[in-house]
Write a structure and sequence with these properties.
alpha/beta, 38% helix, 3-stranded antiparallel beta sheet
């Protein structure tokens, strides 16, 4: 057995307070590190280059606190830096202050969302806050939701509930079904839909891909035709997944039309609004999600456009009774509370981090108006960005932006089209190397594109002008 002497003095926080001063010192040091790093984030590149990985061998003897804290500094310096105003590449925001603090507090408390007795306050907070958010989405009085670790798990759980509810598969699975179950999603739906199908026994071929129109939105007529074909082929359609905020172009599928088709064919209607769901917080832009209120389930990630630290993702249900009837596995080893549920019985995860505290703290701190302001401001910036693309004949938009995401590429007329993919990749790498801007390089419609997500509240029009000057300079240098 370990004697206490074999442990560093700060290995644990002594509950009798004996090492309080030493603990206060390391905590203050880390807090200082975070404040120094994040308040200087504009001076660090958006995506620093990692030149060396620290030694990883597990030492025989304890490492002194000082040495460890120095290693931490090195990690901070080479981590992805979404707080830099030139970080534009992905749907990963800088986090709100109170979501950082909430995460820290929750880690310190080490509660568990598995059951009420393991997280007495957070297991009460989560259903209340999720009910409020579900009502904001217009899902009605019976609606609610659960948090899970990421949008992929949210989609998995939604499609599992859809399958069990529509095909009665909770007990006996797929084997007794006379026909192969299938779902429909657009060709640009998130990869997690196919992962879910693979895990749920449908196979990836169980996701029937619906073609998109020019703006990367699901073609509703093609959906109707695909359902008819599937029925004629003897398959068993049970759900349609619409996307509100596609990963590459931020497109929103025509939700009202898809809702009507789902209803006509008695299909579960799931909306993957992992990214776009945040629009519900803006009075100005909420209408872009019209039709979402008809969903049976919705995936929504506050870790994206609501600026909450990762992970923070949710799956909402129009009627929480479906979770009881078609998903719940009771855990008899847990105490039961009359009015509050052991959430481990209702989510795909068991032990789970109480992500609700940081979400709740962040929403309280910003208020609805604060959230709306962030969303509305990013639309203004998007307009500037789109105008800069349109002003340049050598740049082309992939689609009309429906949110704060711009996908575009260079088609420089002075070079043969066969060189354009390489040109765009070089431009992306050059910007990265220069250290001021990070755009991502999605592969889309068989080509390389550039993607900007205007998410950082500290990105200004001046940054966008500087980015386009850098793009112009790159373009100019490639002219014969
Ligand atoms: C981000 C995203 C997901 C996946 O969420 P993770 O948290 O990365 O698992 C799913 N669907 C859409 C539309 C997304 O934008």
């Amino acid at each position: 057995m370990l004697t206490p002497l074999a442990l560093p003095a700060t290995a644990f926080i002594d509950p009798q307070g004996n090492n309080r001063a030493a603990i206060a010192e390391v905590v203050a040091h880390v807090a200082q590190c975070i404040v120094t790093h994040l308040s200087g984030a504009a001076q660090h590149p958006p995506v620093p280059e990692v030149t060396a990985v620290p030694a990883i061998a597990i030492p025989d003897l304890p490492t002194p606190d000082r040495d460890l804290l120095n290693t931490l500094d090195a990690y901070l310096a080479t981590a992805m830096n979404p707080a830099n105003p030139g970080y534009l590449g992905h749907m990963d925001p800088m986090p709100t202050t109170f979501s950082i603090l909430g995460d820290w507090v929750v880690s310190a408390l080490n509660n568990n969302m598995l059951s009420v007795e393991m997280s007495p306050i957070f297991s009460r907070l989560e259903p209340l806050v999720m009910g409020e958010i579900a009502r904001l989405f217009g899902l009605g009085d019976r609606a609610g939701g659960v948090l899970v670790s990421g949008g992929s798990l949210a989609n998995l759980q939604a499609i599992a509930v859809a399958r069990n509810a529509k095909l009665d598969t909770l007990t006996h699975g797929l084997a007794p079904l006379p026909r192969s179950p299938v779902i429909f999603a657009s060709a640009v739906a998130h990869t997690s839909i196919k992962k879910a199908a693979m895990l749920l026994g449908l196979g990836t071929a169980g996701v029937i891909e619906i073609p998109t129109q020019a703006n990367s939105q699901m073609n509703a007529d093609a959906l109707r035709a695909a359902i008819a074909t599937s029925l004629a082929n003897g398959q068993q359609p049970f759900a349609v997944v619409a996307t509100a905020g596609t990963t590459v172009t931020g497109s929103i599928d025509p939700l009202p039309e898809i809702a009507a088709i789902a209803q006509e064919f008695d299909l579960w209607f799931h909306v993957d609004a992992a990214y776009g769901g945040a629009l519900m917080f803006s009075d100005t832009h909420r209408d872009r999600l019209r039709g979402i209120e008809q969903a049976d389930s919705v995936t929504f990630n506050p870790q994206k456009w609501l600026y909450v630290t990762k992970t923070c993702a949710s799956v909402l249900f129009r009627d929480m009774a479906v979770l009881h009837d078609h998903f719940r596995i009771a855990a008899p080893y847990m105490n039961r509370e009359a009015d509050w549920h052991n959430l481990g019985e209702f989510t795909v995860q068991g032990t789970r981090h109480p992500d609700i505290l940081k979400l709740w703290l962040s929403l309280q701190h910003l208020g609805k108006q604060g959230c709306a302001h962030l969303i509305d401001a990013s639309f203004d910036l998007t307009e500037t960005f789109v105008a800069a693309v349109r002003q340049r004949p050598y740049l082309t938009l992939a689609s009309e932006p429906a949110m704060n995401l711009v996908c575009f590429r260079g088609c420089p007329s002075w070079l043969p089209a066969a060189q354009w993919d390489g040109w765009n990749a070089d431009l992306q790498a050059t910007l990265c190397r220069q250290g001021s801007f990070f755009l991502s390089l999605p592969h889309y419609r068989q080509h390389n594109w550039l993607k900007a997500v205007l998410l950082n509240p500290f990105t200004t029009i001046a940054h966008i002008e500087a980015l386009f000057q850098a793009i112009d300079a790159f373009a100019h240098a490639t002219k014969p």
